Amino acid sequence: MLMKTCTPSSVLLVCLGNICRSPTAEEVFRQQAAIAGLSIKVDSAGTGDWHIGHAPDERAQRHAKSHGYKINKLVARQVSTDDFREFDLILAMDAQNLADLQAIKDSLADTEDHLAKLALFSEEDPTYSGDDVPDPYKGDSDDFEEVIERIESSAQAWIESWKAC
Ligand code: 4NP
Q1: In angstroms, what is the span from residue 114 Cα to ligand 1's centroid?
Q2: Pairing relation of β-strands 89-92 and 10-15?
Q3: Domain span including residue 159
Q4: Which DSSP letter does residue 79 get?
Q5: Which residues of the chain carry a pLDDT beneath 70?
Q6: What is the pLDDT of residue 4?
Q7: Which atom of ligand 1 is nearest to the CA of 133?
């Protein structure tokens, strides 16, 4: 029998700036987990420090709102070493984010044995498996729509995989 990973108690969504993709993913994940009846702590952060303390990008707010996700109250923060101790699972929006997270984890691994599992956000998604959620920051409206589409699909795939556990 295939062993599935059971529902984590906490998930951190990570992108570069924490103002476009990961705050959107945070709210999508929170809503989908609630609908599925899963009790999971959900948060988001960025690998970069440029937008610490900022609200999500106006375009991300607008596109999220049009799909029923209210993200205007979220505040950007940078991922910290404590996140690797406090979260069960850290999901990276793209391959560069994953590499940056892996480097932080590697710097801690010699001294600690219980650190967050890392994965690409698309990992469980049969439609987008292995793909990045492309950075929309320098993009247009279609790019922000694509972010929502991919995030909804890949978040649902994680939740389905846990429900089957
Ligand atoms: P995010 O998008 O990683 O989805 O939040 C970006 C936001 C800001 C920048 C890059 C990506 N930036 O270079 O400031």
Answers
A1: 30
A2: parallel
A3: 16-163
A4: -
A5: 1-4
A6: 56
A7: 4
